Amino acid sequence: MTDHDRAADRREITNALHSALERRHEVLDAIVEASDRDAAVAAIAELLGTATLGAQAVMGMSFAQLTKDARRANQSELEDLNNQLTFTLSDRPASSGETLGLRPFDGAGDSDIFAARTDEIGAAGDGSGGPAGGLDDEIASAVDRVHAEEAAWFVALEGSDKIGMVFGELIGGEVNVRIWIHPEHRKKGYGTAALRASRTEMASHFPGVPMVIRAPGAPA
Predict the structure, then answer these.
(1) 175 has which bridge partners?
(2) Can you tell me the distance from the alpha carbon of 146 to that of 2, in angstroms, rounded to the nearest whole number?
(3) What is the number of other CB atoms lying within 10 angstroms of the CB of residue 205?
(4) Single pTM value for the model
(5) Alpha-carbon distance 127 to 129, whole Å?
(6) Which of 18, 25, 32, 174 has the most crowded CB, counting CB atoms within 10 A?
(7) 80-94, 96-110, 194-208: lowest mean pLDDT where?
(8) From start to end of the chain, where are the E strands?
(9) C-beta separation of 156 from 216 below 8 A
């Protein structure tokens, strides 16, 4: 996640908190009417026009954040973040991660997206930095590593569209993670969303193993 994406996330949260404080009675009514926490978060998101990230922050507010001093501090932070950033979360809607999903790479069915990545990057899929071999050989090697629990590859999806790929390779006691987003889908926040989603997937495949994010072969 880039510094701008972190700041954008923080602004989304700060703006949601500010809006919630301004409309605190409506927010409280929405929470009271909700059947459970997830329903309350969804209701807050709809009421305030914020992403789930912001709505979750509102649900986690403490009473201490309702004081005048806390509200002034929140407003000051929001103004500072607005001055720092030249885009809003709406300019990079995919960065929230709400619409992007990951599924395991299929050697036969996903050769197209891996071929697109290899044509652009020109490097082997194992993260070694060496030149790519033949497509079939690269995929066969990846499948072998996945079966041996030495790798975990995923396809990033927006609906049924293949947006990019996430590569996890177990090397030297660490999981080296690389993100590649197709050129047609860059500058929308998909790289940030894929990185977020990859944390859960890699932790599931390699429990207790440190995850190291490597610079992608092309901008996300």
Answers:
(1) 170, 211
(2) 29
(3) 17
(4) 0.60
(5) 5
(6) 18
(7) 80-94
(8) 100-104, 151-158, 161-171, 174-181, 211-213
(9) no
Phi/psi class of residue 181: alpha, beta or left (left: φ > 0; alpha: ψ in -120 to 50)? beta
Q: Are strands 151-158 and 161-171 parallel, antiparallel or unpaired?
A: antiparallel
Note the Cα 127 to chain centre separation in Å. Answer: 21
Contact 18, 74 (CB under 8 A): yes
Give me the amino acid identity at 89.
Answer: L
Strand 174-181 vs strand 211-213: parallel, antiparallel, or unpaired?
A: parallel
At 85-102, the pLDDT tens digits run: 454 545 555 545 567 889
**CA pair distance 94, 163, nearest whole angstrom:** 11
Burial of 40 per CB tally in 10 Å (0-12, 13-18, 19+): buried
Measured CA to CA, the distance from residue 99 to residue 159 in angstroms comes to 8
Q: What is the spatial distance between Cα 83 and Cα 35, in angstroms, rounded to a whole number?
A: 38
Enumerate the β-bridge partners of residue 179: 166
